[in-house]
Amino acid sequence: MTATLPSPKRPRWRSLALLALLLTPLLWPLQQLAERYYSGALIEQNRQTLDLYVANLLGTLRRYEVLPQILGDLPALRNALLQPNKGADLNKANRLLQQVREQTGADVIYLMDPDGKTLAASNWDQQDSFIERNFAFRPYFREAFAGRSGRFFGLGTTSGKRGYYFAAAVRDGTAILGVLVVKVDLDHTETLWGNTPEQLLVTDANGVVILTSRSDWRFHASRPLDNAERAAIAANRPYPTLAPAPLRIEPRTWLRQSRELAETGWTVSILAPRKLIDRPVRTAVAIGGGTLLLLMLLLGLLMQRRRHYLERIALDARARQQLEQRVQERTQDLELLNSRLKQEVLEREQAQQELLRAQDELVQAGKLSALGTMSASISHELNQPLAAIRSYADNAGVLLDHQRNDDARDNLKLISQLTERMASIIAHLRAFARRDRHAPESVALQPAIDDALALLAKRRRAMQVELIRDLPEATLWVQAGETRLRQVLGNLLANALDALAECPQPRRLWLSTEQNAEGIELQLRDNGPGFSAEALQRAREPFFTTKTSAQGLGLGLAICDTLMRALGGELLLANHPDGGALLTLRLRAASHGGNQPLAAVSSES
Ligand code: ADP
């Protein structure tokens, strides 16, 4: 079962772009702020410039404001007006005015009689001299002659230069003798303005531009003129044109700041092109936009990383789940395997039991069948004592005939012993066939060996086999069955003689014992050919033999091995390093004192 984990949503760049688009309006307030900031800064800077300029202009004008009155009090000028025909006085006045003009920096200073005719002027010696010229039409003359201070802006009728005129009456007591005029050059003030992007503009009371840093704006009307104003312009001719063209100043293009000059009725304005603030605003918006974009990118990256992280977690979880599932499956498999194994073990145990039973039965069957075949050798085994019995009996008869009763009794005793032995062999065979399981008893080892040797003594002697005995004097007691032990020993000795029969002289047979903690080991060694490799492996199997059927049945070692194991001992087959077979009987030691060697037989039958 695989659970589907919620896969994290993928942040698409398209949605990020959409987000950026949604956030773009945020740039608008930024632009507004930047605009406000930069225009504020510009306005502050322009205000200072305007203040400076206004102060400069006012300073220029105020310097000459009171000059006509002061000059009007000079007797030289008054005299010139009182005696206008006296050349010397006029000449004196001319020189005086010229001198004052030079000292004050005024453009022109001139003196007019009550008719407006110029009597004396600072430019008396120049070609465009004002002498004899009449300026009665000028409003400043009228004003001054009326006793007020005359002020006027206008172009010079002779010079064409812009000027500001200050006029005052020259009095003799209360009578007005004439008018003194000081003309200030304003063209000059215009040239003082630097070549900056900001433009300066001075409009007069009519709203007509009289001073400006831009020549194309000069003498244009900043507002529509009414009839009275137009009439005044026609009468006073302050401008080079009688109908000033309209001036259009786009408030979207220019940032305008103005200041009124009450004493002249002028308005001084400073105009800054708005594009001056456009550039820093654009830069600020670009930086803002860039930052926003960067933030978007960072956000995108963060979202991407988060997505990767979530994906990895999901992947890990999936892997863990798969692993758990695999472990679970594996556990199930193992449990299944385990139960199968248990079942198999059970079956095997049962099979083993059956096998053991079958084996047991097989052994039993083997023994039974062996019994039949063994009868041949049994007859051989029994024939020997039988022959001896016969000859002992014959001998006893002869001895009785000769009244040698004691000798005859000895022979009968021997016969009795032999029959007991025979009975023992038969009993053993029966026991073997019947699965004889007599409990082991204490048996003296050396007498058993002697008996076994005695049975084969004749053959051994015939074969000239040298017997080397290395047995202790003291009787060794072992746990065994009298007959069974003798049968085993007899078999082993017979095998040794069989083996030695194949060898030339010297034929030797060694018998030795060794006592250790586990028991007693009896070793039988011959210097025959020894066990073949196969015989070493299989000699214990029933019917394994390397001899012809007449010589052997292959049951000797099989019986010995079974008997030894039944006695709680062991039969070991080996070859001696110096050649020949080495058979070891491992017997359990028994407590001292036991049965008489022959008496024990009856207990086994
Ligand atoms: P059998 O003597 O009838 O052949 P055994 O079971 O007594 O049957 O012996 C099995 C075989 O073990 C023999 O055929 C022989 O090859 C081998 N064997 C037994 N004893 C000796 C010995 N002392 N030396 C060499 N071979 C032996």
Automatic annotation (TrEMBL):
The answer on whether this UniProt entry bears the keyword Electron transport reads: no
How is the protein disposed in the membrane? Multi-pass membrane protein
Name the enzyme group at the top EC level: transferase
Its keywords, alphabetically, are:
ATP-binding, Cell inner membrane, Cell membrane, Coiled coil, Kinase, Membrane, Nucleotide-binding, Phosphoprotein, Transferase, Transmembrane, Transmembrane helix, Two-component regulatory system
Reported EC number(s) for this entry are: 2.7.13.3
Chemical reaction(s) catalysed: ATP + protein L-histidine = ADP + protein N-phospho-L-histidine
The answer to whether keyword Phosphoprotein applies is: yes
Q: Which Gene3D superfamilies match?
A: 1.10.287.130, 6.10.250.3020, Histidine kinase-like ATPase, C-terminal domain (3.30.565.10), PAS domain (3.30.450.20)
Q: Where are the annotated coiled coils located?
A: 320-368
Location of this chain's protein in the cell: Cell inner membrane
- A cellular-component GO term for this protein: plasma membrane
Question: Where does the Histidine kinase domain lie?
Answer: 377-591
Q: Name one GO molecular function term.
A: phosphorelay sensor kinase activity
Major localization listed first in the record, in broad terms = membrane
InterPro entries named among the record's database cross-references: dCache_1, HATPase_C_sf, HATPase_dom, His_kinase_dom, HisK_dim/P_dom, HisK_dim/P_sf, Sensor-like_sf, Sig_transdc_His_kin-like_C
- Give one Pfam family, short name only: HATPase_c
Transmembrane annotation, as ranges: 284-303
Identification of the protein by name: C4-dicarboxylate transport sensor protein DctB
Q: What is the lineage of its organism?
A: Bacteria, Pseudomonadati, Pseudomonadota, Gammaproteobacteria, Pseudomonadales
